[in-house]
Amino acid sequence: MLSDEQIERYSRQIILPQIGGKGQEKLLRARVLVHTQGLLSTAALHYLAAAGIGKIGVFAEAQEGLLAALASHQERDPVSVLTCLNPDCVLITHTVEEARTPCLLVQEYDLVIADSDLLHDACCETQRPFLYASLSHQEGRLIVCRGYEAASPCLRCASIFCAPGSPSSPLAKLGALFMGAHLVTEAIKQLLALPCSPGTTLLRFDFLTFTCTEEPVQKSAACPMGHPRLP
């Protein structure tokens, strides 16, 4: 049951009929792994903490890059940054060594948010939703992959199975905040099993015109991800 302090903290979410008190309790029990290489998924970490995700895992090949992205002028510890934002959240950092057995790592979480394809296959094998986003200087792309389902495409089917760069233009930085919020919104929909539009779409956001287009993605007949297996 939510405490009075938590009801006040999450009041803006609780008043939404799609979430409510029960939904917020579920978010506090949820586990999300973020694989970050750049600005976009680092921005998503702040939104996850603000939403009250109970356990947030972070895997970054360069921990010093994560430190630089999360740290404020007074704090240098990413755990302190996010737990100060929301004391309900537990932040766990994972090492490159742990990622050498990706299925074991992914199984600890309900879904994965990533700006790289490294954990994609492990999500398919362990039947975890894989939320992928990439960012360029002008455009952002986002797709929710459930390639382990018979009719759902994976990242390869969408032809964007590649690691993005890390643009640093002012427009890209603003785009990262926008895309980070969108990623977390999609994550909440997955965690609460909220109704979604049928089929899978690739969302493209043009930051110059602030427009969004949807491209339907079909599962490829040659998709190798239709038969999940555990290690």
Write a brief caption for the model.
The protein is of the alpha/beta class and 231 residues long.
Task: Name the descriptors.
disordered C terminus; 8 strands
Lateral arrangement of strands in the main beta sheet: 3-2-1-4-5-6-7-8
Q: Which descriptor suits the 3D outline?
A: globular
**Separation, N- and C-terminal Cα atoms:** 36 Å
Mean of the pLDDT scores? 84
Task: Give an account of the 3D structure.
The protein is α/β, with parallel strands linked by helices. Helix content is 36%, strand content 20%. The protein has 9 helices and 8 strands. It has helices at 4-9, 11-14, 20-29, 39-51, 63-70, 78-85, 102-106, 120-126, 170-191; strands spanning 31-35, 55-59, 90-94, 111-114, 130-135, 139-145, 200-206, 211-217. The protein has an 8-stranded mixed β-sheet with strand order 3-2-1-4-5-6-7-8, with helices on both faces. β5 and β6 form a beta hairpin. α4 (39-51) crosses α9 (170-191). Mean pLDDT is 84; it is low at 71-76 and 227-231.
Write the layout of secondary structure elements.
Blueprint lengths: L3 H6 L1 H4 L5 H10 L1 E5 L3 H13 L3 E5 L3 H8 L7 H8 L4 E5 L7 H5 L4 E4 L5 H7 L3 E6 L3 E7 L24 H22 L8 E7 L4 E7 L14
Parallel strand pairs: 1-2, 1-4, 2-3, 4-5
Antiparallel strand pairs: 5-6, 6-7, 7-8
Helix pairs in contact: 4-9
